[in-house]
Amino acid sequence: MSDGLGIWTVLLAVVGGAIRVSTPFLFVSLGETITERSGRINLGLEGTLVFGAMSAYATAVMSGSPWAGVAVAGLAGGAFGLLHGYVCQLPRVNDVAIGIALMLFGSGLAFFLGKPFIQPSAPPLPAIPFGFWSDLPQVQAALRVNVLFLVGAALSVFLWWAFRNTKAGLIVRVAGDSADAARAMGYDVDRIRLYATGAGGVLAGIGGAYLSLYYPGSWNEGISSGQGLMAVALVIFARWNPLACFGAALLFGGAGALGPALQSVGVSQGYYLYYAAPYVLTLALLILTSSPNRALAGAPGELSLSK
């Protein structure tokens, strides 16, 4: 293999991998954006992601329909989100502590209920072969795009527009920026945050369905690898902007695809270090966006991490 072909193979693999790997990041980050825009943080989305992956896979195995699995994962994620939202509105309850508790609860429940479904095979989600015009298998593989990625891309545009141009979006923003102002306008802040947290859970559950039903396309206890927690850092990096979440998700996805891309062209020495790229990127972003002297730019005023 020539050096030129090797370089192009790596680039194609990174592009295709970025699309595949970014989809869970995209759904979880969009869900967390909705939640945090309302003034609440949910660190429990890692557990929601894992439970969504398990419930989607189990449903697809039993029903034979991957879309039924996506629907059940969304419902399960919504239930976790509503539980988080309800508990957080109780007196003297900390959002972060409850999120961590639900993260452990969701992951543990998924591992317990999902043991019978580690071996069975579930039908995968469909993908659209945008590389049909090429005879090169590398191009065809890179441009084979799952439907949920396209849904997530469209959703990021819709949420960006909705936060600026719809009454519901403006209400969520007001609740997140100033609870007193929202109450003065006659809105129930607790209810707004409850619904926003539930909606965020739905999207996180769907992100989990993608993991188990498309990429990597199986159910096991290590399926998430901390993507739910990394998505929180992604939201901060994107400054709570749904469109920026789309770009940041692709960046994280490309970082996650770098190791497999190098392995595909025969780079065997030290390639495993590149598998740590998403975690290094997360740490770097958290350091670069932190400051002891000022609140995060663009952060909702009521968000606990901005105070």
From TrEMBL:
Transmembrane regions listed in the UniProt entry: 6-31, 43-61, 67-87, 96-114, 141-163, 192-213, 245-265, 271-288
Localization annotation: Cell membrane
GO molecular function, one term: transmembrane transporter activity
Record's keyword terms, sorted: Cell membrane, Membrane, Transmembrane, Transmembrane helix
One cellular component (GO) term of this entry: plasma membrane
Topology in the lipid bilayer: Multi-pass membrane protein
Pfam family, one: BPD_transp_2
PANTHER family named in the record: ABC TRANSPORTER PERMEASE PROTEIN, SUGAR ABC TRANSPORTER INTEGRAL MEMBRANE PROTEIN-RELATED
Protein name: ABC transporter permease
Organism: Methylobacterium gnaphalii
